[in-house]
Write a structure and sequence with these properties.
six-stranded parallel sheet; Isochorismatase-like_dom; two-stranded antiparallel ribbon; Rossmann fold; 31% helix
C-alpha cells in the first residue's frame, strides 16, 4: 500500500460528545491520537476527510447550528480535502458520495479515526471493507461510551471498544492497529 493513496477519514470528532448525557467514556487519549494522525497527514500532504454527524433528533447536541455540532479543538486549523455531514452511521451514506470521491482520486485505502468506536467508526469501516477499500482502523484514536442492551444490562465502553476491534478484525473488514504503528509506517 503506498502512502500516496492512503486517506485519513476523521469521523464525528464533535464537541457535542463532551456532554455528560453520553455517560462514561473510555480512552481519554483518543483526541491526542486523532491530532497526531491529522498532523502527520497534513505534514505529508496526504488527503484528509472530515465528517460530522448532523443529528435529526430533536434536542440533540449534534444538531446542525448547535455548538455541539462543531468540530473539537483538535481539528482547528485542519486543511481538509473534503468536509461533509451525514445523518446515519456510515460516512459512505452521507451528504457526499464518499466512494465516488475516493475512487475519482485513485484512493484505495484509508485510515479511520473518530467517535464513536462502535457506531459511526465501525459502520464506516465495515462499509469501506465491503466496498473493497484497504481499511486501517486506528483503535486508540477512537472512543465510545457505556451502552445498555435490550435487557437493561450495560456493556462498558471498554467492552464495546474490544468488541469492535474483534468484529473488524475477525470479519476481515479492517486492519485494527494503533496510532503509533500507523505513524511508524508512513
Amino acid at each position: 500500500m503506498t502512502t500516496e493513496t492512503k486517506a485519513l477519514l476523521v469521523i464525528d470528532v464533535q464537541r457535542g460528545f463532551d456532554k455528560p448525557v453520553w455517560g462514561p467514556r473510555n480512552n481519554p487519549g483518543a483526541e491526542a491520537n486523532i491530532k497526531a494522525l491529522v498532523d502527520a497527514w497534513q505534514e505529508r500532504g496526504l488527503p484528509i476527510v472530515l465528517v460530522h454527524h448532523d443529528s435529526v433528533k430533536p434536542g440533540s447536541s449534534l444538531n446542525p447550528g448547535q455548538e455541539g455540532n462543531h468540530f473539537k479543538p483538535e481539528l482547528d486549523g485542519v486543511r481538509a480535502d473534503l468536509v461533509f455531514g451525514k445523518k446515519v452511521n456510515s460516512a459512505f451514506h452521507g451528504d457526499i458520495d464518499l466512494d465516488g470521491w475516493l475512487k475519482t482520486r485513485g484512493i484505495t485505502s484509508f485510515v479511520l479515526a473518530g467517535i464513536q468506536t462502535n457506531f459511526c467508526c465501525e459502520t464506516t469501516a465495515r462499509v469501506g471493507g465491503n466496498l473493497g477499500y484497504d481499511v486501517t482502523f486506528a483503535l486508540d484514536a477512537t472512543f465510545t461510551f457505556d451502552l445498555a442492551g435490550p435487557d437493561g444490562s450495560v456493556l462498558t465502553a471498554d467492552e464495546l471498544y474490544r468488541a469492535t476491534a474483534t468484529n473488524l478484525h475477525g470479519g476481515g473488514f479492517a486492519t485494527v492497529t494503533s496510532t503509533k504503528e500507523i505513524l511508524g509506517s508512513l
